[in-house]
Design a protein that fits this description.
The structure is a single chain. The protein is mainly beta and about 120 residues long. The protein is about 0% helix and about 60% strand. It has strands at about 1-5, 10-15, 20-25, 30-40, 45-50, 55-60, 65-70, 75-80, 90-100, 110, 115-120. The strands form two sheets. Strands 2, 4, 5, 6, 9, 10 and 11 form a seven-stranded mixed beta sheet that branches. It starts with a strand and ends with a strand. The model has no long low-confidence stretch (mean pLDDT about 95).
């Protein structure tokens, strides 16, 4: 069994900052790309940021220059530092990871339960 557990969401005023964390646990052989997605009410889930096992990053256009993704491979964790938050950043943020549970298995995508981020104007 593999679990992704997110933390760090909450309510913040526009212009403020939050740091999200996500830690994977369970039967894990290796983790490939880790990412953060978000879904606002009535909208499709969208990619916020992704980071490969080697540290290469990719960001959604709306968060470039404001958000920073990082990971700690030793702790199977990924983080999202969110600065200069805007009301339009309000959404449920989900952690995603491509995880291999053994040497013989291919990577499968796992999701966290989501954490609410609300930015007030």
């Amino acid at each position: 069994q593999v679990q992704l557990v997110e933390s760090g969401g909450g309510l913040v005023q526009a212009g403020g900052s939050l740091r999200l964390s996500c830690e994977a646990s369970g039967t894990i052989f290796s983790i490939d790309t880790m990412a953060w997605y978000r879904q606002a009410p009535g909208k499709q889930r969208e990619l916020v940021a992704a980071i490969t096992s080697g540290g290469r990053t990719n960001y959604g256009d709306s968060v470039k220059g404001r958000f920073t993704i990082s990971r700690d491979n030793a702790k199977n964790a990924v983080f999202l530092q969110m600065n200069s938050l805007k009301p339009e950043d309000t959404a449920v943020y989900y952690c995603n990871a491509g995880i291999e549970i053994s040497y013989y298995s291919s990577a499968r995508g796992y999701w966290g339960q989501g954490t609410q981020v609300t930015v007030s104007s």
